[in-house]
Amino acid sequence: MSPHDGPVRAFAPGRVNLIGDHTDHMGGPVLPMAIQLGTTVTGVRGGGRVELTSDLLDGEVRLDLPVREPAAVAPAWGRYVAGVAAQLGTTIGLSGRVTSDLPAGAGLSSSAALEVAVALALGGDEVAADPVSLARTCQAAEQAATGVPCGIMDQLASVAGVEGHALLIDCSTLAVTPVPIPDHARIWVVHSGQDRALDGSAYAERRAECERARDELGHLPGADPDAVERLDDPVVRARARHVRSESARVHELAAALRAGDLRTAGALMVASHRSLREDFEVSTPALDATVDRLLATPGVHGARLTGAGFGGCVVALTDPEVQLDGWRVDASAGARLLEP
Ligand code: GLA
Question: Among the atoms of ligand 1, which is closest to the Cα of residue 24?
Fold first, then answer.
C-alpha cells in the first residue's frame, strides 16, 4: 500500500467575479469570491486507474495512468479530470464519484471547481499545502483539456476563497488580498437564459488582440490612457481600453466595498458591463437584457455579466431585502480536503 492509498473526500467551490473580467490573462487585477456552491469528489485512492462517475454529467471517466492526451478523453467532462492527472503526473489511481450543486454552463467556474477537487483528491495534503501551485496546476489542466488560453482567476478563486470576503488578486504576482463584503450587501447571480458556450476561439482571439496591444504598450493594466488611444488598430485599441479601464475599476470597487458604499460599487459594475459590451465585445443581447431588467429593479445597485461572457450569468449587488430569480451567493471559504 502506498501512503496515499485510502478513502478521500475533497470539496472545491465555484466562484463569481464581482469585477475585473478579461484582465487576468494580461496580469491585471480581479475581484472574484468563492461561493457556497461547489463540487465534491468522494472516493478511494489507490490502484492504477482513475474511475469517476458524476451525479450531473453523463458517462463514466476511465483513465489509465499516467495520462498523456487529456484533450482526447471522452466523455468531455473527463478532459478536466485527465488534465489534472496529467499535470500532476499522477500514477496512483482514484475511484469514486463527483457530486455538485454548481450549475454547468452558467459561468460559475464549474470546470475550475472540478479540477481543484480532483487535484486535492489525487494529491492530498501535499497538493493542498501550496495553494498557488495548486491553482497553477489546475489552470494548466484547463488549458490542456480545452485548448482555451484561460487566465488563473477561476482556479485561484476556488483555492483561495475566504468566508465573507471577495479576493483582490493581482494576477501578475498572484498576491491575494481579502476584501470584506459589507454586511448590508447581497450578491445575486442571475442566469441570462443563454448557456455559455465556452467560445474558446473568441476567447483566444480577444487574448491575442490584447497581446498585440501589450507588444506596443507594455503592461496593459497600467498603460497610459492617451497611449491607448493612439493605437492604430481600432479593435486592438478598444480591447486595450477595456483592460486598462477595467483594471482601474477593480481597485475602485475594492475601495467602495471597504467603505460600504454600495452606490459607487454598483455604478462601477455598470461601467464594467458597458466596457465588456462595447470595448471587449463579449456581451450578448440576452446578457444585456438581463442587466437592464435587474437595474430597473428597486434595491439593485449594480449588475454586470460575470466571467468570460458569450452567455451565462449576470452578477448583481443588492440591498438585503431584494429577492431575485437566481442564486443568492455568499462569499465562502476555499477548496479543502474533508473527512472521508
Ligand atoms: C474565464 C477564464 C478566466 C478569465 C475570465 C474572464 O472564466 O477562465 O481566466 O479570463 O474568463 O475574466
Answer: 10
Closest CA to 287 of 317, 310, 316, 318: 310
List the catalytic residues. Answer: 154
Q: Is 196 in the pocket of ligand 1 (CB under 6 A)?
A: no
Domains and CATH numbers, the chain: 6-180+332-338 (3.30.230.10), 186-329 (3.30.70.890)
Between β-strands 29-30 and 165-170, what pairing exists: parallel, antiparallel or unpaired? antiparallel
pTM, full prediction:
0.97
Q: Is the CB of 150 under 6 A from ligand 1?
A: yes
Pocket residue to mutate for ligand 1, from 15, 16, 23, 25, most atoms within 8 A of Cβ? 25
pLDDT tens-digit series, residues 57-74: 899 999 999 999 999 999
CB 284 within 8 A of CB 311: yes
CB of 308 closer than 6 A to ligand 1?
A: yes
